[in-house]
Design brief:
Rossmann fold; 9 helices; binds NADP nicotinamide-adenine-dinucleotide phosphate; globular; 7-stranded parallel sheet; alpha/beta
């Protein structure tokens, strides 16, 4: 199936690694030109080399700290000046501090608000201004299944990501007249570096193999964790011409974990 992504310009945030990187790679495989963004320059250079080696797409990168509104503003000013247009936003961000509600201070909640909520609002707001001008666009927000059920020791994710729901639905309605769709994908446990590190810690602590530790983490009916490309292909589809009548949805990609 031709997704019609050839030549589209996609901004992927938090994309030097993990889910953001997998999404950028998949979009580039489908012919989109991608802009990577994260905080560390060396990781961005490495990630853009990997995508360039594997695809024929143009790959750009620019540093951003999503907890800093001024840094987000500078990223979009750079896009305006150097690229001049934007068709697709895939929003991901860093992971919040783990902990149950009473382990966390109000300061932790304030920081998580910037990382998980304000950054999603500001990147969507700035990205949609390019798309409104074009009369076409796709916004895909990466959330978590914590939006469907509270996850143990992830109070910040359970609480501070909830604006993603309102943002997705509100923008879907307000941007529909401009031919812009807005959807959220909600990953369960997907095997990125972050999850691999967690598994390594469990393996060491419990004296079991890495494979056994990964299986332990996989709380889904499928009894396995997901792979980054299993999320990225859903994102590429939502970003495509083919997904033109899907908007305002929250799509779990979790092997059924949110049903347990
Ligand atoms: N993997 C899962 O199973 C899973 C499940 C549900 C939800 N999630 C959520 O999905 C998001 C991505 O997770 P992941 O597993 O892909 O994480 P990851 O492998 O640790 O990658 C995180 C990426 O985000 C960037 N980043 C971190 N903080 C940032 C900031 N303040 N500003 C800009 N970029 C930042 C990192 O680069 P720099 O450090 O250089 O900035 C890196 O590129 C997280 O919010 C996570 O909680 C993940």
């Amino acid at each position: 199936m031709d997704l019609g992504l050839n030549g589209k310009i996609a901004l992927t945030t938090a994309s030097s690694k993990g889910l953001g990187f997998a999404s950028a790679l998949e979009l580039a495989r489908e012919g989109a030109n991608v802009i990577l963004s994260a905080r560390r320059e060396d990781e961005l250079i490495e990630a853009s080399k990997r995508i360039k080696n594997e695809t024929n797409s143009d790959v750009f990168w620019h540093k951003v700290d999503l907890t800093d509104l001024n840094s987000i503003k500078k990223l979009f000013e750079w896009i305006e000046k150097n690229i001049g247009t934007l068709d697709i936003l895939v929003y991901s961000t860093g992971g919040p501090r783990p902990g149950n509600f009473f382990d966390l201070s109000i300061n932790d909640f304030e920081k998580a608000c910037k990382l998980l909520a304000l950054s999603a609002i500001e990147t969507s707001r700035r990205a949609s201004s390019f798309m409104i001008k074009k009369g076409w666009g796709r916004i895909i927000l990466i959330g978590s299944i914590s939006l469907l059920k509270p996850l143990n020791r992830l109070a910040l994710s359970n609480i501070m990501r909830t604006p993603i729901i309102g943002l997705t639905r509100t923008l879907a309605v307000e941007l529909a007249p401009y031919n812009i769709t807005v959807n959220a994908v909600l990953p369960g446990t997907i095997l990125t570096d972050r999850v691999r590190n967690l598994a390594e810690n469990i393996a060491e602590r419990e004296n079991i193999t890495l494979d056994e530790a990964v299986k332990k983490i996989a709380e889904s009916p499928m009894k396995r964790v997901g792979l980054p490309e299993e999320l990225a292909t859903v994102i590429a589809f939502l970003a495509s011409e083919k997904a033109s009548y899907i908007t305002g949805t929250l799509i779990p990609v979790d092997g059924g974990a949110s049903l347990l």
